[in-house]
Design a protein that fits this description.
Blueprint: H1 2-39, H2 48-70, H3 77-82, H4 85-116, H5 130-133, H6 135-152, H7 155-160
Helix pairs in contact: 1-2, 1-6, 2-6, 4-6
């Protein structure tokens, strides 16, 4: 069962990585187009900045979920490595449980916010604002999946096993 959870988490992180690459690329293209239209054409497009902001939110929050899986978030490695192995294992599970709780709350509050802003549109592109807001519950669910995996299969033990 744990192996299945780990496989699902790994595959979700792999797909998320490709989505992050796509959203970051589109965001950069929007910003380049914004600069080009402003300084070369003399008139900026109204939609490029807004789309870049939406893509930035998706890029950063989705990348953060993969960082949960990989254990790539900032941590005090110097202090953690000084702890005895059993304490380090307990600490990694405490951190994973805290991240899991945060992600569940983030998903729930994000879904509540999407519901409360339903029907609103963006200022420039006039598209549904849910395209921006839905990233919170999506990232919350993905982060919870990866945090649950870290809780049940701590990163320290995972590093010793083949991927």
């Amino acid at each position: 069962m744990l192996t299945l959870l780990d496989r699902i988490s790994r595959e979700v992180a792999r797909v998320t990585g490709w989505i992050v690459i796509a959203t970051a690329t589109l965001m950069i293209l929007c910003l380049i187009l914004q600069v080009f239209s402003r300084y070369v054409l003399g008139s900026a497009f109204s939609w490029t900045e807004e789309l870049a902001i939406i893509l930035f939110a998706w890029t950063t929050l989705l990348a953060a979920t993969s960082a949960i899986r990989d254990g790539a978030h900032v941590r005090l490695v110097f202090i953690i490595s000084a702890l005895p192995e059993p304490v380090r294992l307990v600490w990694s599970r405490v951190v994973a449980a805290a991240v899991l709780a945060f992600c569940v709350v983030f998903a729930w509050s994000g879904a509540t916010y999407v519901d409360s802003t339903f029907g609103q549109v963006t200022a420039a592109m006039r598209i549904s604002i849910e395209w921006l807001h839905v990233v919170a519950p999506v990232a919350g669910v993905l982060g919870a999946l990866h945090a649950l995996t870290r809780l049940l299969i701590p990163l320290d033990l995972k590093e010793d096993s083949p991927s």
